[in-house]
Amino acid sequence: MIVLGIDIGLRKGSAWAAVGGMGLYSGTLKSAASDDAAMAHEQAEALRRVIAEQQALVVAMESQFGQLTKDTTEKERDGMTHAALRLAFLRGALAEAAMTAGCTVIEVAPATVKKAVTGSGRASKQQVQEAIARQFGVRLSQDRADAAATAIAGATRVRALEVLGMAKDAAAEA
């Protein structure tokens, strides 16, 4: 089974990585658009093409996470809120594209993604990148390594659900 991990990004595009089958493949869902709706549409169309090319059955995405502390200024809070809304908009468009393409979409907590490849839910981006390089023998950008780690965590969750008999189409996969 091919699981596609997505590391959602606004500026550079969303990184993707497909794991399973014959190894690891990765790329970026790019958009030249400057407005959010057009960017989401272009990335969603690119995702549909990747799903078809990779024959992915599952798309895994990290759940959204933002950390505010008592020291976060009001201006920083406003910026984080705006970025979170933009990411949520893009995330929704990508989830819809994946579901329309027939994939099961699963959400994985950031700590679970890190733990799946490094053994620690508090690992740094560099530690995740190094773990992916060791596992697959290729050094990816941090965004693509994050997407690969998300795919691995997603595959782990799908296997657990299959064992419990709870995964959609688990019987068909066996």
Describe this structure in words.
This protein has 174 residues and is of the alpha/beta class. It has a single domain (3-173), classed as Ribonuclease H-like superfamily/Ribonuclease H (Nucleotidyltransferase, domain 5, 2-Layer Sandwich), CATH 3.30.420.10. It contains 6 helices and 5 strands; from the N terminus they run E-E-E-H-E-H-E-H-H-H-H. Strands 3-2-1-4-5 form a 5-stranded mixed β-sheet. Helix 1 (36-54) crosses helix 2 (74-100) and helix 3 (110-118) crosses helix 5. The longest helix is centred in the middle third of the chain and has 27 residues, at 74-100. It is globular. Mean pLDDT is 90; it is low at 170-174.
Here the CATH topology equals Nucleotidyltransferase, domain 5
Give the CATH level 1 class: Alpha Beta
The largest beta-sheet arranges its strands as 3-2-1-4-5
The CATH homologous superfamily name equals Ribonuclease H-like superfamily/Ribonuclease H
Features:
alpha/beta; single chain; Nucleotidyltransferase, domain 5; disordered C terminus
Write a concise synopsis of the structure shown.
The protein is α/β, with parallel strands linked by helices and 174 residues long.
